[in-house]
Amino acid sequence: MDAPRRNAIIAFGSNLGDRVATIKQAANEVADLGGTVLLKLSPLYESAAVKPEGVDLDAPEYLNAVALISTDLPPEALLTELNGIEQDHGRERHERWGDRTLDLDIIWMDGVEMETERLTIPHPRAFERSFVVVPWNDVQPNAVVLPHGEIAALAEKFSNELHRFEVSA
């Protein structure tokens, strides 16, 4: 039996190295995953680094984006693939919420609610984060995720917390 095809939201973040190139290349690699189609990639946004103790203005700023994908990969298999892409881009995990070359998170997957040691869908903190909600609104403005509500309303609430990053030609 084939796995059901589902839409999903993937968050991209990078604050080390060539952030623009890393996110663009990672988006292409997500699009190349078997059984996966990249439907839309948001513009890039820049935001301050968030650490467990709060915003860290001394850390390099993040570039963030969100992709809307369609995939027939089950959630755990998708996470394994995303972790592989992170590793290919030099991701090291030394500290919680540490600086990184690439961070890929499954934020939401249509019809999936789960909590395991490795993966929680919907992502438990995504709805508190401007750098997820605002670009999500760019790729899926009609999304409604209970109990959080409409993505458009959440994005409006966070719209002053980050700015769109313009890539020079």
TrEMBL record:
Matching SUPFAM superfamilies: 6-hydroxymethyl-7,8-dihydropterin pyrophosphokinase, HPPK
Catalytic reactions on record: 6-hydroxymethyl-7,8-dihydropterin + ATP = (7,8-dihydropterin-6-yl)methyl diphosphate + AMP + H(+)
Known pathway: Cofactor biosynthesis; tetrahydrofolate biosynthesis; 2-amino-4-hydroxy-6-hydroxymethyl-7,8-dihydropteridine diphosphate from 7,8-dihydroneopterin triphosphate: step 4/4
CDD domains noted in UniProt: HPPK (cd00483)
Record-listed E.C. numbers: 2.7.6.3
Cross-referenced Pfam families: HPPK
Enzyme class: transferase
GO biological process per UniProt: folic acid biosynthetic process; tetrahydrofolate biosynthetic process
Residues annotated as domain 7,8-dihydro-6-hydroxymethylpterin-pyrophosphokinase: 9-141
Domain of life: Bacteria
One term of GO molecular function: 2-amino-4-hydroxy-6-hydroxymethyldihydropteridine diphosphokinase activity
Entry keywords, A to Z: ATP-binding, Folate biosynthesis, Kinase, Nucleotide-binding, Transferase
Protein name as it appears in the record: 2-amino-4-hydroxy-6-hydroxymethyldihydropteridine diphosphokinase
Species this chain originates from: Aurantimicrobium photophilum
